[in-house]
Write a structure and sequence with these properties.
Shape of chain A: flat
Order of helices and strands of chain A: HHHHHHHHHH
Structural class of chain B: alpha/beta
CATH topology of the domain at 87-298 in chain A: MetI-like fold
Largest sheet of chain A: none
CATH architecture of the domain at 87-298 in chain A: Orthogonal Bundle
CATH class of chain B: Alpha Beta
Oligomer: heterodimer
Strand order of the largest sheet of chain B: 6-7-8-3-9-10
Number of helices of chain B: 11
Radius of gyration of chain B: 18 Å
CATH topology of chain B: Rossmann fold
Radius of gyration of chain A: 27 Å
Distance between the termini of chain B: 27 Å
CATH class of the domain at 87-298 in chain A: Mainly Alpha
Largest interface: A-B, 21 and 27 residues
Number of domains of chain B: 1
Chain lengths: 303, 289
């Protein structure tokens, strides 16, 4: 088989794959397959432990009471450590306000970069700083807001809205970058068609570019929201943490990441388990956001 | 001025019509055209130069486009024909660094005059692009109505105009039962006719077409070419094409461009059968380009 053969026309036959190449192929495939499996191990373990520990914490009053209860001593039956209602409400409110700040600003910056700034010096400088901001550790945003808004005493001390500002700073570069990519995907011919109809530029952006890019803009924003929802550090010394149920963003508020942070540090097993429950809920929340983002992307009109 | 053929027979139905010459003041030719029941405009380019940054792509073109005629601009890639077209409705300047000098006169009015509203120019001079570009988020109806909305035309009047434009683009019978479905659901040829409907809906003074059939199959191309013949009853049409057969089929007059210069312009038949410039002859006979 391995000897070269000749066909009727005198052409050299096509030799089979050499055993050495087959062997190398097998080794390489096994190697990358094994690495993939190893990389999956922590992911699967995280999900497994979250479900195992977290589901146990999801009892009747987990979502309906606040973490203000006391540790139950053996023999006590009427006590409860409480659930995470205030943390869920706090996370929803703080992240919602952060989104309201960061998404319009971020989208506006992206519109400027794509539609007006283009490759100008100023636009490229903005791009550079946005990139730098993407790499800033989240704790630095928390520290910044702590110094500017909390330590200076503007509007009182710790407050939910200050946490929102810190999260918004974190979200801003993510929204800008993802929106810029999506807006660049809108075909230039569409802009030209609208301009050639006599539409002013703002109208082209508002009526053609943004609607065409809508699903992509939503996807990018939701991913930024998901990222912000899981952050602990920016909230640590801005929104602070209180166990009470607080509705107003003007006061210190609880949040899921902070609840987890505080609960895990306690020695009581029941409270640590509450942290697992809160973590599971947070992961589910982010999972849902990601799913919605994917659905929005699937409906995208852009390639 | 361009070496203009002294007279051009534009319309076989009206052989006695005095044919417009470059010397005739613009408003006279317009009123003449109006007297014949036609409302196409006369367009003239005077020493039009177009630049991309420091690069001069078009070197001082003088060219007349007669009312209610189809003028084809042909030439090899990079000869500046599309750039000239984009200068006419001031789309050229949308490209960063691009600008132009000289005059583009629409019935004597300079579209580059300093007090002219850019959006008004583009409303008056419609443009059909190479690729069909229906607005992807809009329905068939809204695509055609997009320009009307900008002009402040709404309600029943808008519906009437959309119907008129779709009929004019030969698309009405194919889409009248699904006006609310998305415009991108149509076939390529239908999309291009939708874009033509969108352009004529605002009743422009002039229609520019930038290789409108290059993305279409032969049948759709034929349909659009027939449409161009119908549209010239109402509009002056300028078409850029790579396809010389197409120029021969649709154009009354043809202008040949080479390396940013206008080589020759004249009645289509004489350009293709008896060109005065040897470069034109070489190009139309397929020796280069």
């Amino acid at each position: 088989m391995s000897a070269p053969t000749f066909n009727e026309a005198g052409l050299r036959g096509l030799p089979p794959v050499s055993p050495g190449r087959v062997r190398k192929d097998r080794i390489a495939r096994t190697f990358i397959g094994a690495l993939t499996l190893i990389a999956l191990v922590p992911l699967v373990l995280v999900v497994f432990y979250l479900l195992k520990q977290g589901l146990g914490a999801w009892n009747g009053d987990f979502f309906t009471t606040d973490p203000t209860g006391r540790t139950c001593f053996p023999g006590q039956t009427t006590c409860s450590i409480g659930g995470v209602r205030s943390a869920i409400l706090g996370t929803l409110e703080i992240v919602a306000l952060a989104s309201v700040i960061a998404i319009p600003f971020g989208t506006a910056v992206a519109v400027y970069l794509v539609e007006y700034g283009k490759q100008s010096k100023f636009a490229n400088t903005v791009r550079y700083f946005v990139d730098v901001m993407t790499g800033v550790p989240s704790v630095a945003f928390g520290l910044f807001v702590y110094i500017v808004l909390v330590a200076s005493g503007i509007g009182g001390s710790y407050a939910g809205w200050k946490g929102s500002v810190a999260l918004a700073l974190l979200m801003l570069p993510i929204v800008v970058r993802s929106s810029e990519v999506v807006l660049n995907l809108v075909p230039n011919q569409l802009r030209e068609s609208a301009l050639a109809l006599g539409a002013p530029r703002w109208k082209v952006i508002w009526s053609v570019v943004l609607p065409t890019a809508r699903s992509g803009l939503i996807t990018g924003s939701l991913l930024a929201v998901a990222r912000a929802a899981g952050e602990t550090a920016p909230l640590l010394f801005t929104a602070f943490a209180t166990n009470e149920l607080v509705f107003g963003l003007g006061q210190p508020m609880n949040s899921l990441p902070l609840q987890i942070f505080n609960d895990v540090r306690t020695p009581q097993d029941a409270i640590v388990q509450r942290a697992w429950g809160a973590a599971l809920f947070l992961v589910l929340l982010i999972l849902i956001l990601n799913l919605v983002a994917r659905l929005a992307q699937r409906r995208s009109r852009l390639a | 001025m361009t070496p203009e053929p002294t007279t051009t027979l534009t319309d076989v139905d009206l052989p006695e019509t005095p044919l417009t010459t470059p010397e005739v003041p613009a408003h006279e030719s317009a009123s003449e055209a109006a007297a014949n029941g036609k409302n196409g405009r006369r367009l003239s380019l005077q020493d039009l130069k177009a630049f991309y940054g420091d690069n001069e792509a078009v070197h001082g073109i003088n060219l007349e486009y007669n009312p209610n005629e189809v003028t084809a601009m042909i030439g090899p890639s990079g000869c500046g024909k599309s750039t000239v077209l984009r200068c006419i409705n001031r789309m050229h300047e949308e490209i960063p660094g691009a600008y132009s000098t000289g005059k583009v006169l629409l019935d004597g009015l300079d579209v580059y005059a300093s007090d002219v509203d850019l959006t008004a120019v583009r409303r008056a001079i419609g443009m059909v692009f190479q690729k069909p570009t229906p607005f992807p988020t809009l329905s068939i109806f809204d695509n055609v109505a997009a320009g009307l909305k900008l002009a402040g035309i709404k309600g029943v009047e808008a519906s009437d105009r959309v119907e008129w434009a779709l009929k004019g683009a030969g698309l009405w019978n194919e889409v009248k039962d699904r006006l609310n479905s998305p415009g991108i659901g149509l076939s390529g040829g239908q999309q291009q006719r939708l874009c033509i409907a969108r352009t004529i809906a605002v009743e422009p003074e002039l229609i520019l077409m930038d290789e409108p059939c290059s993305a279409l199959d032969p049948i759709a191309t034929l349909r659009v070419e027939e449409l161009i013949q119908e549209l010239k009853e109402q509009f002056t049409i300028v078409i850029v094409t790579h396809n010389m057969q197409q120029a021969a089929r649709v154009a009354d007059r043809t202008a040949f461009f080479l390396l940013g210069d206008l080589v020759e312009v004249g009645p289509t038949e004489s350009i293709f059968t008896n060109p005065t410039d040897s470069r034109t002859e070489e190009y139309v006979s397929g020796k280069f380009g």
